[in-house]
Design goal:
The structure is a homodimer of 194-residue chains. The first copy, chain A, has 194 residues and is α/β, with parallel strands linked by helices. Helix content of chain A is 43%, strand content 10%. The radius of gyration of chain A is 17 Å and the shape is globular.
Chain lengths: 194, 194
């Protein structure tokens, strides 16, 4: 029996309104591609009566344990509350890479990081979180180079979706999943000498 | 002879205008605390004539190698071009944690993550990078829980600085460095049975 690769489904999806439906959808799509989707679901932990700090630590440790158990990471790297992606997802990508696990990342926004950062500056630094003369990365990548170059494709898979649907549309995930399934099948064949 | 702990100095400082002066200042401060500060300096790599993508990959690999060589990470987690910290720095913290290295993080903004995300929403989602009914973490932490709970202090060291100076003021770094030096000296004594 060939065990299915387990994919940790990183992303800010956990914060979205219809997280349960999104998790179920992503897992079904993984199964259709011969993989098991593992979703960082926090509710079971959060329900126990503990301090907020203790709950946060338990969720962090649980997610790290899940990443260790998985064979790969598929990460939603669409911009989240800023020019860049969700910081927790960036953390998880770095965590997985240090363990040698392949990471596949996607974004539902096609613009380069540079264009998004320049737009932020044109908006007048609305969050007061920039420095006027700071350099803006210009490598033609979709995200900070540490993230983009850490992925198997050496940049994020980019999909253009309907404006306002960037965080809920699953087309970027589907495209990235197909890429991941193909890469995992290929590496599995190599391991079996096929 | 006791070798000095090597601290990887993560943060968006590499993008700031006076990066050379900042790097020198941080290294001097580390030396004054009995540590060697290792700065992710990219210029030597970027000077060679290669494609932007190849330069980005070389910088990413070089920074990962530096993290592997270091004993700890001190990370500037002040908000950068959004509600959250620099995504590349979040990646590096995750990378270091998977390798078991202690991480010390600071921010020059005292507000909880929740307050910053709520302010972003009040501004009308200026970057179109939020989902209207998405949940906002409320653990009383300074950053996404994966980041905050991954640090030795289980949250970022927070310092209030003069508005507009959040990315250049070194007071957060100094406070965090003192914490790191104390913790490293204490763990070194334990290792030597002192």
């Amino acid at each position: 029996m060939v065990t299915r690769p387990r994919a940790y489904l990183a992303g800010p999806d956990v914060f979205l309104e219809h997280v349960t439906a999104i998790a179920a959808c992503k897992k079904r799509l993984c199964a259709a591609h011969g993989m098991e989707g593992v979703f960082p679901f926090d509710e079971a932990i959060a329900e126990r009566r503990r301090s907020p700090a203790a709950i946060a630590r338990a969720i962090g440790a649980a997610n790290e344990a899940l990443i260790r158990e998985c064979d790969l990471v598929i990460a939603n790297c669409s911009p989240f509350r800023g020019v860049s992606m969700d910081a927790g997802t960036a953390y998880e990508i770095g965590f997985a890479r240090a363990l040698g696990k392949p990471v596949f990342g996607y974004t539902n926004v096609v613009a380069d990081y540079r264009h998004r950062a320049e737009r932020y500056r044109r908006l007048g630094d609305p969050l007061n979180a920039d420095a006027a003369k700071s350099a803006i990365e210009d490598f033609g990548l979709a995200e900070n180079l540490m993230i983009a170059t850490a992925t198997v494709a050496r940049d994020l898979v980019r999909i253009r979706v309907k404006p306002g649907r960037e965080l809920v549309d699953q087309r970027g995930f589907v495209r990235c999943l197909a890429l991941a399934a193909k890469a995992m099948a290929s590496s599995s064949r190599r391991r079996r000498g096929g």
